[in-house]
Model the fold of this input.
Amino acid sequence: MTKTRIALIGGTGLENLIKKTESFRIRTPYGFSPSITRGIMANCNVVFLPRHGSKHEVPPHKINYRADMWSLKKIGVERVISTNAVGAINEKYKPGDLVIPSDIIDFTRSRITTFHDEAPVVHIDVTSPYCPQVSELLCSSAKKTGHRYWKGSVLAATEGPRFETPAEIRMMRNMGCDIVGMTGSPEVFLARELEMCYATICFASNMAAGMQNRLTLEEVMATAKKTLPALREVIEDLISTIPNERECQCSMALEHAKL
Done:
């Protein structure tokens, strides 16, 4: 299997971010990965993994996150750039804005969030859940391309597949959350356990519950379609400028974590 160092993870409509050369699936201890596409972006070899499946058939709470992340590690991925549609909790944010979070609060309930269910016991450090180096490069690319973006944000990860209630959003706002989405966890934690760099660029597809009259999937998809060119431009710039060297601690995440 050809090794590829950079992976993109996204939802429906984002598979066209790269120029496809081949597709394949990976067998993992946790089941098969979805169909992964290998291709070219900004003259670099990258892979794209559709977290909801090739036809968006898998809801957020049923995604096989462990198989997804394990498969990327198996093909040599060192850096993962995720894209997420999110609701804006912070009143300063508006639909269409790009958001690069630096922290996350996990409100999910039924998902397996670790690879380490048996000895040795592992306690992974998530003081910096998102790779500082890749996140800062994402911010630089967003600034360079002129798109409105926010950094240093806190992402609230919820179970789904339903949207949140207004009371839940008020609670999250009081806790310091800026955005809310259904696919932020456990990807970020599993990538950390595999010592891969992980960063995400989100786009606000709507204002969160209670901040507009109602939420519809049509609105989310319409905003995603409009925002796709901005996402493509930022990610292309990132990939064209990202250095080969990892100047972060992500590759040493398991040091001092095992009993």
Observations:
- Residues 6-252 form a domain with the Rossmann fold fold (CATH 3.40.50.1580).
- Helices lie at 65-74, 132-145, 166-174, 187-193, 217-241.
- Residues 217-241 form the longest helix (25 residues).
